[in-house]
UniProtKB/TrEMBL annotation:
This protein's UniProt keywords: 4Fe-4S, Cobalamin, Cobalt, Cytoplasm, Iron, Iron-sulfur, Metal-binding, Oxidoreductase, Queuosine biosynthesis, tRNA processing
Localization per Swiss-Prot or TrEMBL: Cytoplasm
Family of this protein: Belongs to the QueG family.
Listed EC numbers: 1.17.99.6
Active site: D133 (proton donor)
InterPro entries: 4Fe4S_Fe-S-bd, 4Fe4S_Fe_S_CS, QueG, QueG_DUF1730
Subunit structure: Monomer.
Species in which this protein is naturally found: Chryseobacterium geocarposphaerae
Cofactor: binding comment: Binds 2 [4Fe-4S] clusters per monomer.
Descriptive protein name: Epoxyqueuosine reductase
Gene: queG
């Protein structure tokens, strides 16, 4: 590998750090050979439930060169979202920590574009696309390949230094860069996430039956929540953090320093009574810039009513 590739790789990593990214790793843009069969099997088992979009662009998911023409490198980045304060769950429904604040898609995409703009000032023009949990990109596979972390038994990417409360993002580009090496797996014999999952969604190590996951039921599912989830939702109205909360590596999580990820003030004061009275107008006001808007007012209302029924209060 030439010295230019090494120089550019170092520049990208130091620049990523200065823009607030926790980790940055690089992989060669190539076919993800070891992911092809597992992905096919996961889809065949219908573990994606009603997320039919997962069946689309199978080849592009496995080969970034089909997604971004002329691409040579995949730059994987992680961005901490662990909150400075947790929203109280006393007399309250629960919401996943990643949804406490502004929509991460928008926040991180903006940061990525600024990062690339600065890189192009120093390197010169290069072809690229940025991704934040969007488009058919197997984010964890690329992050694992680039050495950022390993895939835990709960299928989340975990790092020794900071656990798993972070977003993943990618810059797929036509720069020839120096690839990093994978790290080792440090889950050992621990089964805390498997044993703690309220719905038994972790069917085997690293394999999630998405159709049994509380996050899927409260966000992705568009129809009525199946009876399977009755008495298992543990008051989660949007998302679920159980498998991350019990992970021993998350004792190393530190609060993020991104002001746009500070908890939404409106969420701090809500209690179950207020949630039950939620109107479309109030939903639109509170969640205008939030990831919660993905489930829409009707979806969040459905989740709250299901939780109420499960507790026998309706």
């Amino acid at each position: 590998m030439n010295s230019t590739a090494e120089k550019y790789s170092q520049l990208i990593k130091s620049k990523a750090k200065s823009f607030g990214f926790q980790n940055c790793g690089i992989s060669k843009a190539d076919f993800l050979e070891e992911d092809a069969k597992p992905l096919e099997k996961w889809l065949k088992n219908n573990f994606h439930g009603e997320m039919k979009y997962m069946e689309n662009y199978f080849d592009k998911r496995l080969d970034p060169r089909l997604l971004v023409e002329g691409s040579k490198s995949v730059i994987s980045l992680s961005y901490n979202y662990f909150p400075k304060e947790k929203i109280s769950t006393i007399e309250n429904f629960k919401i996943s920590k990643y949804a406490y604040a502004e929509d991460y898609h928008e926040v991180i995409k903006e940061i990525l574009r600024e990062l690339v703009s600065e890189l192009q000032e120093e390197i010169g023009e290069f072809g690229f696309r940025v991704f934040v949990d969007s488009a058919p990109v197997l984010e964890r596979s690329w992050a694992k390949k680039s050495g950022i972390g390993w895939v835990g038994k709960n299928a989340n990417l975990i790092t020794k230094q900071s656990g798993s409360f972070y977003f993943l993002a990618e810059i797929i580009c036509d720069l020839e860069l120096l690839p990093d090496h994978e790290t080792t797996d440090h889950c050992g014999t621990c089964r805390k996430c498997i044993d703690a999952c309220p719905t038994d969604a972790i069917v085997s190590e690293k394999i999630i039956d998405g159709s049994k996951c509380i996050s899927y039921a409260t966000i992705e599912l568009k129809n009525e929540i199946p009876d399977y989830f009755k008495d298992k939702m543990d008051d989660w109205m949007f998302g679920c953090d159980v498998c991350q909360d019990v992970c021993p590596w998350n004792r190393f999580s530190v609060p993020n320093t991104q002001s746009r990820f500070n908890p939404n003030e409106a969420l701090k004061n809500f209690k179950k009574g207020e949630w039950k009275e939620l109107t479309q107008e109030l939903f639109s006001e509170i969640f205008k810039k939030s990831p919660v808007k993905r489930t829409k007012f009707s979806g969040l209302k459905r989740n709250i009513e299901f939780l109420e029924k499960s507790s026998g209060k309706i």
